[in-house]
Design brief:
- With about 200 residues, the chain is an alpha+beta fold.
- The chain has 3 helices and 6 strands; from the N terminus they run αβαββαβββ.
- Helices cover about 25% and strands about 20% of the residues.
- The protein is rod-shaped and about 155 Å long.
- The protein starts with a helix and ends with a strand.
Amino acid sequence: MKAIRLILATVFGIAVTFGLFVLMYSLIESAQQAPDESEIRKIGDIWQTETEITDQLKEIKPEKPADPEEPPPDLPVDQQVAFDVSVDAISMAVPKVAGLKVGMGGGFSRDSDYIPLYVPQPRFPRRALERGIDGYAVVSVIITTVGGVRDPKMLEEYPTGMGFGRAALKAASKLKYNPRVVDGVAEEVPDVKYKFSFIVED
């Protein structure tokens, strides 16, 4: 029984080996044959004209800025400044602060033609206010051609060391006058004196 099985297995193995050998031989033969070109179709060449490729960039122009507003013309130095104000309408009284009175003293007759149109309220020195001390300060200014003042200088203060002179100088820089006009031309007026009085009211 074993001998029969061995014979059958040997025969089957030989048959399989022979079949594989035939298959390999056929594959090798087919690989060596020239390819069949009967069904190959040639595609025609695509012809294009020669063109130069360039970047097409759109030029962007900035928007035109708006025209600037024209600044007002400068006021000429020699331009006459006229104040069309009634003399009766000008109040020479200095604004009052509760318990204080600040005013202009007399004694400056040579400057009487230069009464200020505007007198700022000076600050009463704290040291003098706390001690209830009255005082005054005399300043000298130059009236400009447009009615302002420049170069304020303290000429006198009493009592000294209380701060009356410093307060008067700060206020004097804001004085406003009607400028002096000679033959239609405004002129500066030097050495115009003004007296600030500081009085503590009871």
